[in-house]
Design goal:
The chain is of the alpha+beta class and 644 residues long. It contains 21 helices and 22 strands. Strand 10 and strand 11 form a beta hairpin.
Length: 644
């Protein structure tokens, strides 16, 4: 053993703890829901809704209602058959109590009650129960309404009949435990995006989501008889379609059902969203590998057959055939194999071949039957191919080894001395003036500075060759050293914190949006991996008039008022300095407020919902003006800090 790690305490049988019931969930919640952040909070709702959706998949439910109450408790109601209430043959307690208090208890382990299901681990209801201040369940079945209450995972009332009914279904109400979660305020827009997605994936099933919180009251009803075709139309509503209605086909093989809707638009980015048993597989998996392989083969074969590609021409790449493609790939199967409880990647090896076979057969037939659409698709792919060839030399310059060995490192980059990427940070700073201050303020051991000047290219309206040659974006590509597009390799990233640092005004916000759009479209693993951060420089410095050594920084006038009252400073006895930009700060001020790891505040950019992220970037940076105007009207009242 190296180092001074010796522990003098004895280790014997008394050190072995056994966590009973749901104590393990409360002790290590992250193991079951990913985290106790806002993402984990919303995962609780998803687990309960997923149980209702499983009933819909089994053909026993067609209505699901979700309600956010005034106190941020949640109710989920479905019209399924209701959770069984009889005494469980093994546990000797009501089955509904088994489902809510015992891990890995459910009807999805080969009993035949469910053909396909998202909740295959059998931990959903019990985990939600364990992590809630309270949970109440009402089950309508067999002519009665049954009720039971739990608190922090423990049963506090026996199952009892509270009424009679002819209806069937389950009503679950729970309030997340504030001692577990970092915050307990639900995000209606995030929930709406998730359950709109569920409504698209479950054709004809009715969902409603209602917010009863004061000042936020609203209700949205969702039902899409067009299923994933409607989904693709919704995703692409900010873009111009090239081929009219989306292409749709489905197929089945070996108890596996494959559904695909796809459409080519006038944009330059690909948007492929994949699902397995209604679960968003953000990291893809075998179904996406099969889909990508098949469309590349089909379009190349068609292009060669009809003379779009000559014998000597190299084939179209996967990037070429997916430029401007929006697709939804949904598979349903009996025994899905996911990577971990978060289920972000499908691993069933046979699914690749099944998806590939179905796509090749159906897409080949559709292209032969619709030569006009096929010509538009192939010409779109050929345009991408030509742009890719033109950009190849520039792209090669972004490879990490070449970058580090050549003179192509950005001239204005002030690199750090640390070589371990895990310890390195790069600040992408708006403007030469701010960049100069940041260079003087930084800790050169682990902080690199890359100043950018002027507004860069809007990549939402540009092909990759324009992106690579752009004088504002190429320094970013080169400095990060991990490539771009399909060749982006996060393992080659030179800095594990990529910090966007811009002024806290309208122009700064625009710069941030342009950079985030670029990273989302061309370096998505950078965002998905949590490597991107937004620096939070303050707007004000407040000094006590009679004692210059007493001061604080603030982000808003309201914060100034609150803090001066808290400190007992009288009005007129302090001065307020407003920073118009980063360049106005001294190096010490910039270090103390924005760059010192011990005192700074960063916002970490995460990708909780890819569809929602795509929608926002398309709205803000796309070619259609009206959706952008509507977005601004809707959210303008929520702006908290804006320097006009």
């Amino acid at each position: 053993m190296q180092g001074n790690l010796k522990n003098s305490k004895k280790y014997d049988e008394s050190n072995i703890d056994v966590l009973e019931g749901l104590e393990a969930v409360r002790k290590r919640p992250g193991m079951y829901i990913g985290s106790t952040s806002i993402k984990g909070l919303h995962h609780l709702v998803y687990e309960i809704v997923a149980n209702s959706v499983d009933e819909a998949l089994a053909g026993r439910c067609d209505r699901i209602n979700i309600i956010i109450h005034e106190d941020n408790s949640i109710t989920v109601i479905d019209n399924g058959p209701g959770i069984p209430v009889g005494i469980h043959h093994k546990m000797g307690i009501p089955t509904v109590e088994v489902v809510h208090t015992i891990l890995h208890a459910g009807g999805k382990f080969g009993s035949g009650a469910y053909t396909v299901s998202g909740g295959l681990h059998g931990v959903g209801a019990s985990v939600v129960n364990a992590l809630s201040e309270y949970l109440e369940v009402e089950v309508s079945r067999d002519g009665h309404i049954y009720y039971q209450r739990y608190e922090r995972g423990k049963t506090v009332t026996p199952l009892k009949v509270i009424g009679d009914t002819d209806a069937t279904g389950t009503k679950t109400t729970f309030k997340p435990d504030a001692t577990i979660f970092e915050e307990t305020e639900f995000d209606f827009d995030l929930m709406l995006a998730r359950y709109r997605e569920m409504a698209f994936l479950n054709k004809g099933i009715y969902f409603s989501i209602e917010d009863k919180r004061p000042g936020q009251e609203q209700k949205v009803e969702l039902k899409y008889d067009g299923g994933i075709v409607s989904f693709v139309e919704y995703i692409d509503r900010m873009r111009e379609s090239l081929i009219g209605a989306p292409i749709y086909f489905e197929g089945a093989q070996d108890d596996k059902i494959v559904e695909i809707a796809m459409q080519y638009n006038d944009g330059y980015s690909e948007n492929i969203f994949s699902y397995a048993n209604n679960i968003a597989t953000m990291e893809g998996g075998t179904h996406i590998t099969g889909f990508k392989s098949a469309i590349t083969k089909v379009i190349n074969e068609y292009a060669r057959k009809y003379g779009y590609l000559k014998e000597k021409d190299p084939g179209l790449s996967g990037e070429d055939v997916r430029e401007g493609l929006t697709a939804v790939v949904s598979v349903k199967l009996v025994n899905p194999q996911f990577e971990g409880q978060t289920k972000s990647k499908l691993g069933n090896s046979d699914v690749r071949g099944i998806v590939e076979s179905i796509v090749k057969e159906k897409l080949s037939a559709l292209m032969e039957e619709n030569p006009r659409d096929a010509k538009i698709i192939v010409n779109k792919c050929l345009a991408s191919f030509k742009a890719r060839e033109a950009a190849r030399k520039a792209r090669d310059l972004t490879r990490r080894n070449n970058v580090l060995e050549s003179s192509s490192l950005p001239g204005k980059l002030s690199d750090c001395t640390e070589k371990d990427p895990r310890l390195c940070e790069i600040y992408i700073v708006e403007g030469d003036s701010a960049g100069g201050t940041a260079k003087n303020a930084r800790d050169r051991r682990f902080q690199a500075i890359l100043p950018l000047w002027g507004k860069m290219l809007n990549v939402e309206k540009s092909r990759i060759d324009k992106v690579i040659y752009n004088d504002k974006l190429s320094p970013v590509i080169t400095a990060l050293g991990a490539g771009i597009g399909e060749e982006f390799d996060v393992n080659k990233l030179r800095y594990h914190k990529v910090v966007i640092m811009a002024d806290a005004d309208v122009d700064g916000s625009h710069i941030r949006t342009l950079l985030l759009t670029f990273m989302f479209r061309y370096m998505r693993p950078l965002v998905e991996g949590g490597y991107v951060y937004i620096a939070q420089p303050p707007l004000f410095k407040v000094n006590k008039s009679d004692k210059s050594d007493q001061y604080f920084y603030a982000f808003s006038e309201q914060e100034i008022e609150e803090e001066t009252i808290k400190r007992g400073w009288e009005k007129g006895k302090y001065t307020v300095q407003r920073f118009k930009g980063l360049g106005e700060m001294s190096k010490d001020q910039l270090w103390d407020t924005t760059m010192n790891p011990e005192t700074r505040t960063f916002l970490r950019v995460t990708l909780q919902d890819a569809v929602m992220a795509d929608e926002i970037f398309s709205t803000l940076m796309g070619t259609k003006v009206e959706p952008r105007r509507d977005f601004i009207k809707k959210y303008a009242k929520n702006v908290q800090r804006l320097d006009i």
